[in-house]
Amino acid sequence: MADSESRMRTVDVVAAVIRDARGRVLLTRRTEGKDFAGRWEFPGGKRKRGESPEDALVRELREELGIEAEPGPHLITVPQLYPDKHLYLDVRAVVDWHGSPRGREQQAMAWVTMEKLARYTMPPADLPVVAALQQPAHYLVTPTPGEDDASWLEALDAALAGGVQRVQLRAPGLDPARWQRLATAAAKRCRKAGAEVLVNGGVELARTLASGIHLTAAQLLANKRRPLPAGQRVGASCHTLEELRHAQAIGCDFAVLGPVKPTASHPGVDGIGWDRFASLRKHVSLPLYAIGGLGPDDLAEARRHGAQGIAAITALWPALTPTPLP
Ligand SMILES: Nc1nc2c([nH]c(=O)n2[C@@H]2O[C@H](COP(=O)(O)OP(=O)(O)OP(=O)(O)O)[C@@H](O)[C@H]2O)c(=O)[nH]1
């Protein structure tokens, strides 16, 4: 950590995703004199010394909006480095409250549908929160097929039936003609199941299939701009801060960061661990999937360290681990 960073204060903030019966989310606007004045945010505020996150949230929502709220499940905690502080933004869902919210501190308010959330300019720490609300928590990375393409496609079908909604088609070393045929069939199945599909590596194949692309770390650094237009997803694999910053600079939609734990697919490589994951996460506001020896059971811990979710081959591929998603 740079010396100036180590001297900065740490600020713990709790915020609420308050939803109405129509599923809209309540945003409030930061007032003049505050940092990020004019930007929209999730209502909430700083935790006082000795106060639990739940108590802080109840107090803040009472003070700011005049409602009595019941804090619901934890959504995500985003560690974020701001110019003057280390922020930990702990976000809870709130579906039960009494009273009618009004801006008691003269702040503007808006009930916003999920589709329109991204149109509201928010502080950097809120971008992973919005992604956690809108995008899948699990990212399946396919294993390289063995001899039999049919059983690989069957396993993909089973993963999709189990609830996977974002898939990276990856098969390093496979004969290109075979891969093109197989990826075409796989992309069709993903689309039919309503899942998003990204092709690892091949920009041309991604264009042919009209899908998204997942950049390897080397490809990421070689790209000076997004290889596909907005509307087609671009993801990237990252291991270092330089790669994460580059992914953010060229406008990737998300990145995959790891390995968090040691994995069978990369023997001899140590995991970076959750603390390192969170400290890298602080420097960018991209949605990040954690990868490396993780499965659906690690989702809550991943979210506590600022991850959008988990990416996995083994734990999400039914032929390897036959567990449906929670
Ligand atoms: N409440 C809230 N704060 C957020 C969000 N996102 C985000 O980056 N923050 C940051 O968290 C910090 C908490 O701000 P705050 O509103 O409680 O406090 P403040 O310093 O602006 O004013 P205050 O000292 O008068 O309470 C600010 O640095 C703010 O920019 C969010 O969605 N909600």
From TrEMBL:
UniProt binding sites for Mg(2+): 44, 64
This protein's record includes keyword Transcription regulation: no
Family statement drawn from the similarity comment of this UniProt entry: Belongs to the Nudix hydrolase family.
Required co-factors: Mg(2+)
Binding site for 8-oxo-dGTP: 30, 41-44
Domain annotation Nudix hydrolase: ranges: 8-137
Gene3D superfamilies xref list: Aldolase class I, Nucleoside Triphosphate Pyrophosphohydrolase
Keyword Metal-binding part of the UniProt annotation: yes
UniProt xrefs under PROSITE patterns: NUDIX, NUDIX_BOX
PANTHER family found in the cross-reference section: 8-OXO-DGTP DIPHOSPHATASE, NUDIX HYDROLASE FAMILY PROTEIN
Highest rank taxon of the organism: Bacteria
Keyword tags: DNA damage, DNA repair, DNA replication, Hydrolase, Magnesium, Metal-binding, Mutator protein
GO biological process, one term: thiamine biosynthetic process
Catalysed reaction equations from the record: 8-oxo-GTP + H2O = 8-oxo-GMP + diphosphate + H(+); 8-oxo-dGTP + H2O = 8-oxo-dGMP + diphosphate + H(+)
EC number(s) from the headed UniProt entry: 3.6.1.55
GO MF annotations, alphabetized: 8-oxo-7,8-dihydrodeoxyguanosine triphosphate pyrophosphatase activity; 8-oxo-7,8-dihydroguanosine triphosphate pyrophosphatase activity; 8-oxo-dGDP phosphatase activity; 8-oxo-GDP phosphatase activity; metal ion binding
Protein name listed in UniProt: 8-oxo-dGTP diphosphatase
Record-linked Pfam families: NUDIX, TMP-TENI
